C-alpha cells in the first residue's frame, strides 16, 4: 500500500483536519509535560474505576463527538443550502452523512446517556460503586477506543460512505472496496463490547447494590429507566455483534452472507441491523424519559404523577421495541400481512408513550414550577417530542409510508424524536447534575441563552424538512436542481442549523465561564431536589456515602428533609471502614490492544490484528491472576471528609 | 471485614459478596450469549438450502463423526458436574481429576470438529463456497471457538487452584466456568438438531 492511499489526500478540508489533529496532540502533550501532569493523568483518570470519574470521561468524550458530528451536520447544511452547490462532491457528502449518523447515535447519544447513568445511578440507589468497577472501566475504554478507531478513518484510509445503516450490497466489497466500511464494522464492534458489559454491570448494580431499604417500586424513575435500558442492551447488542461479524467475514474472508452471488441474502442484513437498531432507538430514549421525569418532578415540586404507570409503560415500550423492526423497510415488499403486523405493533408504541406524556403533564399540573435551565429543556421536550411522535405514527402506516419513505419527512421525524428527546435530555441532565460532578453549577443566564437559541434553531432547522419531504426531496442526496423548488425551505433549515451551532458554542463557553466564576457548592443539594444523589455532600467523597442512607419511600431524600424539618434527628452512628476497589491500568491497556487489533483488521494486516488479539488475551490472563482485594477507607479519613463537608 | 456467618451448607463460592454478584452477572451474560447464538441460528436457518449449486449438507454430513462429537461433549458436561460435586465436598483432588477429564473430552471434541471441518473443505465446501456453508462454518465455528476459549480458561483456573487451593475466589471461578461449559453443551444440542439432523433429512 502506498502512502498516499494510506493517508487521505487531495481535499483541503482533510488537510485542515490533519493539521488540527496534529496541533491538538502536540498541544496536549506539551501541556501535560509542562504542568507535570502525566502521573496525575494516569493515576487519577486513566486507571480509575470510580463510576463518577468514568461517567465524567464518558460525557467529555460524548461532547467531543457531538462537536465532530455537529461539524458534519454543518457541512451537509452548507452543501444543501442552495441548488447545485459545489462545496462537497457526492462521495464526500456520502462519507459525511454516514459518519454524522454513526457518530451521533453510537458515539454521542449512547455515551452521553451512559455517562450520566454512571455518575447518577449508583448515587441514586445509595451504592458506593457499581457491581463490577473493573468491568466499568473496560466498558469506557473499549467505547473510547472504538470511537477513536472510527474517527481516524477520515484522515487515514477514508471514511465509510454507505450510510449509518450500511445496507448491502452498497456496503459490500464490490461497491465499497475502500477500507472505510471496515472502520465502521470494527469501530462499532469494539465499542459494542463495552456497551454490552455496561448492560450487565448496571442491571446487576441496580438489582443488587441498592440500599437494602429501597424497594424496586420506590426507585427513582431515572434508575428505573436505566434498568429497563440495560435489559434492552443485553438482548439487542448481541444481534449487532453478530451482524457486524458476518459483514466483516463477507468483506475480509470472502463468505457469502449478504452478497448478491452464491446464495447470499442482502435483506438479511437489513433485518439483523434493525432487530438491533430499533431497540437501540429505545436505548437512547428511555434514559432520557427517566431524566425528564426526575427534573420535572423536582422543579414542579411534586412527586411524579403515575409512578407505576410510568414503570409499566417503559416495560411495554421495551417489549414492543423488539417487535417493530420491519417498519424501517416497509417498501421491501414483504407483503400485506407482514407489513400490517409491524404497522400495528409500531402504532401500539404510541400508547405507553402517550401515557408517559400525560403523566408528565399531570406532574406539572398545579405544581409550583421553577423555570431553571434543566426545567426549560424538559418543558420544551414535551411539545417537540409530540410532533416527532405524531409524525412517527404517520410513518407507521405502511401504505402511507410508501410515500414518505426515504424522504426528508423521515429525516425530520427522527431528528424530532432524537434531538428533542435524547439531546434535550442530555443538556437538561448535564445542567441538572453538573454540580454533582464538578461542584459548581453552570451559569443559569448562559444556560438560558443556550436553551432559547438551540431550541429556536432546532425547530427552524427541522420543521421545514417535513415539508421538504412532502415536496419530494429524498434524503441522502448531495444536491438538487433549481427546478425542484426546494431552495427556500433549505435556506431556512440551514439558518436553524447555524443557530443550533451557536447554542452549542454558548454551552461550551458556559462550561469555561462557570469553571472560572460560578460559586462553589456547599450543600450538595443546589436544586432542593428529591432523590438520594442529592444527599451526598459537596464534593462527593470517592466512597459516596459515609453511612448508607435509608430509603423510606418515593423521593427518599425529600422524605429525609421533611423529617429533619419536623425536628427528627438521626442518632450519630460511629463510622466503619469502607471497602473500595483498587484502580487498575489493565482496562486501558486492553483497549489499546483492541484498537491495534481493529486497525490491523481494517487494513487486512493480519500480523497486526493477531498481535493486538494476543495483547488482549494477555491482559485478560493478567486480570485472571490478579487477586487484588481492594482497600479499606479508614475511619479517620471518613471523619476528616465529614468535618470538611459539614462546615 | 465481612463478618457475616454462613451456614455450613452455603457453598464456598456463594460466601462472598463478590462471589454472589459475579455468578449472577455471569448468568446474565449467558442470557446475552443466548441472544448471540439465536441470531446465528436464525441466520443459518434462513440460509439453509442456499448452496448456489455447490455441495449440500446431505452429501457431506456423516453421522458417525457427529455422534462421537456429541457423545464427547455431553459426557464432558456430566464430568464437569461431577467436578463441581467434588468441589462442594472440599475435595481438591476430585476436582482436579474430573476437571482434567472434562478438558480431555473437550479437546477430543475439538479434534473431531477440526477434522470434520478439514474434511468438508477438502470436499469443496468452505466458508467461501456458498451462503449455506458460510452460515454453517460461522455458527458451528463460533461454538467451537467458545469451546477453545473454555478450555484455555479452565486451564488458567486449574493453575490458580494449584497455587491457592479451594477458596471463595477460586471456587467462584470454577463454578462460573462450569456454567459456561454446560451452556456450550446446551448450544451443541441445538446445533446437533438444527444443523446435523435437519441437514441429513433435508
UniProtKB/TrEMBL annotation, chain B:
Reactions listed under catalytic activity: 2 a quinol + O2 = 2 a quinone + 2 H2O
Chain's role: Catalyzes quinol oxidation with the concomitant reduction of oxygen to water.
Domain named Heme-copper oxidase subunit III family profile: residues: 1-200
Main localisation: membrane
GO biological process, one term: ATP synthesis coupled electron transport
Record NCBIfam families: QoxC
Similarity section: Belongs to the cytochrome c oxidase subunit 3 family.
E.C. no: 1.10.3.-
Transmembrane residue ranges: 21-46, 66-84, 96-115, 135-159, 179-199
Membrane keyword on record: yes
Pfam family, any one: COX3
GO cellular component: plasma membrane
Gene encoding the protein: qoxC
Entry-linked PROSITE patterns: COX3 (PS50253)
GO molecular function: cytochrome-c oxidase activity; oxidoreductase activity
Membrane topology field: Multi-pass membrane protein
Keywords, alphabetical: Cell membrane, Membrane, Oxidoreductase, Transmembrane, Transmembrane helix
Annotated protein name in UniProt: Quinol oxidase subunit 3
UniProt-annotated location(s): Cell membrane
Amino acid at each position: 500500500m502506498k502512502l498516499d492511499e494510506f493517508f487521505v489526500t487531495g481535499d483541503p478540508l482533510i488537510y485542515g483536519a490533519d493539521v488540527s489533529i496534529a496541533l491538538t496532540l502536540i498541544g496536549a502533550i506539551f501541556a501535560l509535560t509542562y504542568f507535570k501532569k502525566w502521573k496525575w493523568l494516569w493515576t487519577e483518570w486513566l486507571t480509575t474505576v470510580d463510576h463518577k470519574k468514568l461517567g465524567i470521561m464518558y460525557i467529555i468524550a460524548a461532547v467531543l463527538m457531538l462537536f465532530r458530528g455537529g461539524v458534519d451536520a454543518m457541512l451537509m447544511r452548507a452543501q444543501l443550502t442552495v441548488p447545485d452547490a459545489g462545496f462537497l462532491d457526492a462521495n464526500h457528502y456520502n462519507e459525511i452523512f454516514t459518519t454524522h449518523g454513526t457518530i451521533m447515535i453510537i458515539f454521542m447519544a449512547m455515551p452521553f446517556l451512559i455517562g450520566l447513568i454512571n455518575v447518577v445511578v449508583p448515587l441514586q440507589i445509595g451504592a458506593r460503586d457499581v457491581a463490577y468497577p473493573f468491568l466499568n472501566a473496560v466498558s469506557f475504554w473499549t467505547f473510547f477506543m472504538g470511537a477513536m478507531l472510527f474517527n481516524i478513518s477520515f484522515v487515514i484510509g477514508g471514511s465509510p460512505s454507505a450510510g449509518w445503516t450500511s445496507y448491502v450490497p452498497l456496503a459490500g466489497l464490490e461497491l465499497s472496496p475502500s477500507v472505510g466500511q471496515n472502520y465502521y464494522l470494527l469501530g462499532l464492534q469494539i465499542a459494542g463490547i463495552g456497551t454490552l458489559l455496561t448492560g450487565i454491570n448496571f442491571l446487576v448494580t441496580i438489582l443488587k447494590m441498592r440500599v437494602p431499604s429501597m424497594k424496586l417500586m420506590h426507585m427513582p424513575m431515572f434508575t428505573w429507566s436505566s434498568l429497563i435500558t440495560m435489559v434492552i442492551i443485553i438482548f439487542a447488542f448481541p444481534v449487532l455483534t453478530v451482524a457486524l461479524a458476518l459483514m466483516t467475514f463477507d468483506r475480509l474472508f470472502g463468505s457469502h452472507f449478504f452478497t448478491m452471488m452464491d446464495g447470499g441474502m442482502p435483506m438479511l442484513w437489513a433485518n439483523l441491523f434493525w432487530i438491533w437498531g430499533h431497540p437501540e432507538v429505545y436505548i437512547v430514549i428511555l434514559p432520557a424519559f427517566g431524566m425528564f421525569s426526575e427534573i420535572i418532578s423536582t422543579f414542579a415540586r411534586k412527586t411524579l404523577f403515575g409512578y407505576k404507570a410510568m414503570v409499566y409503560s417503559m416495560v411495554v415500550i421495551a417489549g414492543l421495541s423488539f417487535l417493530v423492526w420491519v417498519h424501517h423497510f416497509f417498501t421491501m415488499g414483504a407483503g400485506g400481512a407482514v407489513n400490517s403486523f409491524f404497522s400495528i405493533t409500531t402504532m401500539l408504541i404510541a400508547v405507553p408513550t402517550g401515557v408517559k406524556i400525560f403523566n408528565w403533564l399531570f406532574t406539572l399540573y398545579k405544581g409550583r414550577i421553577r423555570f431553571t435551565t434543566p426545567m426549560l429543556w424538559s418543558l420544551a421536550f414535551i411539545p417537540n417530542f409530540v410532533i416527532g411522535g405524531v409524525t412517527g405514527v404517520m410513518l407507521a402506516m405502511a401504505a402511507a409510508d410508501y410515500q414518505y419513505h426515504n424522504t426528508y419527512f423521515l429525516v425530520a421525524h427522527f431528528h424530532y424524536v432524537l434531538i428533542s428527546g435524547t439531546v434535550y435530555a442530555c443538556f437538561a441532565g448535564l445542567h441538572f447534575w453538573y454540580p454533582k460532578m464538578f461542584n459548581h453549577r453552570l451559569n443559569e443566564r448562559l444556560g438560558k441563552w443556550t436553551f432559547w437559541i438551540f431550541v429556536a434553531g432546532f425547530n427552524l432547522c427541522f420543521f421545514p424538512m417535513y415539508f421538504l419531504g412532502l415536496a419530494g426531496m429524498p434524503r441522502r442526496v448531495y444536491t438538487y436542481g433549481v427546478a425542484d423548488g426546494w431552495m427556500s425551505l433549505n435556506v431556512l433549515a440551514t439558518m436553524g442549523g447555524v443557530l443550533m451551532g451557536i447554542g452549542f458554542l454558548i454551552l461550551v463557553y458556559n462550561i469555561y465561564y462557570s469553571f472560572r466564576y460560578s460559586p462553589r457548592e456547599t450543600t450538595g443539594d443546589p436544586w432542593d431536589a428529591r432523590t438520594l444523589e442529592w444527599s451526598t455532600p459537596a464534593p462527593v467523597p470517592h466512597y459516596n456515602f459515609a453511612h448508607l442512607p435509608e430509603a423510606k419511600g418515593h423521593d427518599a431524600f425529600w422524605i429525609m428533609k421533611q423529617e429533619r424539618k419536623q425536628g427528627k434527628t438521626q442518632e450519630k452512628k460511629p463510622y466503619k471502614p469502607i471497602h473500595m476497589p483498587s484502580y487498575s491500568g489493565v482496562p486501558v491497556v486492553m483497549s489499546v490492544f483492541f484498537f491495534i487489533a481493529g486497525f490491523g483488521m481494517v487494513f487486512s494486516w493480519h500480523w497486526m490484528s493477531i498481535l493486538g488479539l494476543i495483547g488482549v488475551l494477555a491482559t485478560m490472563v493478567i486480570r485472571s491472576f490478579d487477586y487484588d482485594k481492594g482497600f479499606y477507607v479508614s475511619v479517620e479519613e471518613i471523619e476528616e471528609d465529614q468535618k470538611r463537608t459539614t462546615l | 471485614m465481612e463478618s457475616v456467618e454462613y451456614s455450613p451448607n452455603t457453598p464456598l463460592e456463594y460466601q462472598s459478596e463478590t462471589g454472589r454478584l459475579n455468578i449472577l452477572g455471569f448468568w446474565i451474560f449467558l442470557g446475552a450469549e443466548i441472544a448471540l447464538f439465536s441470531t446465528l441460528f436464525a441466520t443459518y436457518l434462513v440460509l439453509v438450502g442456499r448452496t448456489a449449486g455447490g455441495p449440500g449438507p446431505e452429501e457431506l454430513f456423516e453421522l458417525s463423526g457427529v455422534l462421537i462429537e456429541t457423545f464427547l461433549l455431553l459426557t464432558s458436561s456430566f464430568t464437569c458436574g461431577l467436578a463441581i460435586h467434588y468441589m462442594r465436598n472440599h475435595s481438591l483432588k476430585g476436582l482436579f481429576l474430573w476437571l482434567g477429564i472434562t478438558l480431555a473430552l473437550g479437546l477430543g471434541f475439538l479434534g473431531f470438529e477440526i477434522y470434520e471441518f478439514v474434511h468438508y473443505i477438502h470436499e469443496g465446501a468452505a466458508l467461501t463456497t456458498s451462503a449455506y456453508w458460510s452460515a454453517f462454518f460461522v455458527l458451528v465455528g463460533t461454538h467451537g471457538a467458545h469451546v477453545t476459549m473454555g478450555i484455555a480458561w479452565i486451564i488458567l483456573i486449574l493453575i490458580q487452584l494449584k497455587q491457592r487451593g479451594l477458596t471463595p475466589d477460586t471456587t467462584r471461578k470454577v463454578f462460573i466456568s462450569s456454567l459456561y461449559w454446560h451452556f456450550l453443551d446446551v448450544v451443541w444440542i441445538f446445533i446437533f438438531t438444527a444443523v446435523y439432523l435437519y441437514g441429513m433429512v433435508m
